[in-house]
Specification:
By secondary structure, this protein is an alpha+beta fold. It is built from 8 helices and 14 strands. It has 2 domains: 141 residues, Fructose-1,6-Bisphosphatase, Chain A, domain 1 (2-Layer Sandwich); 111 residues, 3-Layer(aba) Sandwich (D-Maltodextrin-Binding Protein, domain 2). The chain is globular.
Length: 265
């Protein structure tokens, strides 16, 4: 499987980078963009839909028997047992406001277990990528989670979900700060997970994330030597998951703080 995963990873990287170029064309002409609201702080633009259409077509051409699950269009079933899970623009709120912190996310899964993860940030040209058992990389260079042992030695990424009580992040931040920690939020959960994998953040937490936002990043954190709350393979694609991911030195403490702040799992 490793050879197949490596080939799929390379193709996913190429598709994500090409999709990023398409996204950048829209990003440079925001005044012409059509934007809609899907709910509280939940936006979608024609760029999201067009980039997803591009990614779907490219994946379908490369692997016609695979399934595809994306944020903006209906799932397409496949016969191979392998599913691609995609977010064309993670960080749409940033994108539509001209903030250069958004990503193209492509994960590859089999039976709900993530085997491939690619997170491409077009504005910086950074591609975080890897496959299960093969390590995690940033533009081809190996990356590792932070070696620190204390929350006071770095920042923890935080997100809040409109599918849970958004205010639950407030007690988490209060407890984090009381321990000398610092919270960080850039409104792209996938990018913050990539920052955990690359050692820039100590951890990332969000009470609920959809599969297309988190599966790629969770795999990269694991492959970079970190720890994660492993999603349930039976439900994650359809229902999403709680996300707790971090370097080994702080993971247990972060998980304990989440237990005190978030609703019971």
């Amino acid at each position: 499987m490793s050879g197949d995963a490596s080939d799929r990873e390379k193709i996913a990287i190429d598709i994500a980078r090409r999709a990023g170029e398409l996204g950048l064309k829209y990003f440079r002409e925001l005044d012409k963009l059509t934007i809609e609201s899907k709910g509280h702080q939940d936006l979608v633009s024609e760029a999201d839909r067009d980039v997803e259409t591009f990614v779907r077509a490219a994946l379908r051409e490369a692997y016609p028997d695979d399934g595809i699950i994306g944020e903006e269009h209906a799932p397409a079933k496949g016969s191979s047992g392998f599913d691609w899970v995609i977010d064309p623009i993670d960080g749409t709120a940033n994108f539509v406001r001209g903030i250069p912190a958004w990503t193209v996310v492509i994960a590859g899964t089999r039976a709900g277990v993530t085997e491939i993860g690619v997170i491409h940030e077009p504005c910086t040209g950074e591609t975080f990528h890897g496959h299960r058992g093969g390590g995690a990389f940033l533009n081809g260079r190996p990356m590792r989670t932070s070696p620190v042992l204390s929350l006071a030695e770095g920042s923890v990424g935080t997100g809040f979900s409109n599918r849970r009580e958004a205010r639950n992040i407030v007690p988490f931040i209060d407890m984090l700060v009381s321990e000398g920690g610092v919270f960080f939020r850039n409104a792209s959960g996938a990018l913050m997970l990539a920052y955990v994998a690359s050692g820039r953040l100590l951890a990332y937490v969000e009470e609920h994330m959809n599969a297309w936002d988190c599966l790629a990043g969770l795999l990269l954190v694991e492959e970079a030597g970190g720890r994660v709350v492993v999603p349930d393979p039976k439900t994650v694609l359809a229902e999403g998951t709680m996300v707790i991911a971090g370097c080994k030195g702080v993971f247990d403490r972060v998980e304990a703080i989440c237990a005190g702040a978030f609703s019971p799992r």
